[in-house]
Amino acid sequence: MQTEYFWIALAAILLLLDLWAMNSVLRSDKSSGTKAGWTALIFLLPLLGVVIWGVAGPRGVTKGPSSPEHSKG
After folding, report:
1. CA-closest candidate to residue 42, choices 54, 30, 28
2. How many helices (H) and strands (E) does the chain have?
3. Which residues cross the membrane (predicted)?
4. pLDDT tens column, 35-69
């Protein structure tokens, strides 16, 4: 019974990592073909895809606020 909960928790963590990776890929400034390829890799090979993305994949855009009003600290 306890091992079932372990595998369910592991699957949930993997799902969250995959969703985070896909979100990061889709927010990147790469071409739509590159985004589609990375998304397909992460979707079709969840564990291996997220590991490969973690090493070599595109990251989300890290642009700052576009308005001076929002950049006040």
Report:
1. 54
2. 3, 0
3. 6-26, 38-56
4. 999 999 999 999 999 999 989 888 766 566 666 66
Which residue, chain included where needed, has tokens 């993997």? 14
pTM: 0.74
How many other C-beta atoms lie within 10 A of the C-beta of residue 25?
22
Which of 35-73 are b and which e, b meaning 16 or more Cβ less than 10 Å from the residue's Cβ?
A: beebbebbeeebeebbeebeeebbeeeeeeeeeeeeeee
Report which of 44, 23, 45, 52 is spatially closest to residue 35, judged by C-alpha positions: 23
Q: Torsion over CA of 65, 37, 45 and 52, rounded to 10 degrees? A: -60
Do 61 and 28 touch, CB atoms closer than 8 A?
A: yes
